[in-house]
Amino acid sequence: MSTFIPDRARRPEPSTSSVETDAVETDAVETDAVRTTGRFTYAGWEELPVGSPDGAPRLARALVTNTFTGGVEASGTSCAYTIAYTGENVGTYTGMELLTGSVDGRTGSFVLEESGSFDAGGTTCRFAVVPGSGTGGLTGLGGTGGFTYRHGETSVAYAFSYRLG
Question: For residue 23, is pLDDT > 60?
Answer without folding.
Answer: no
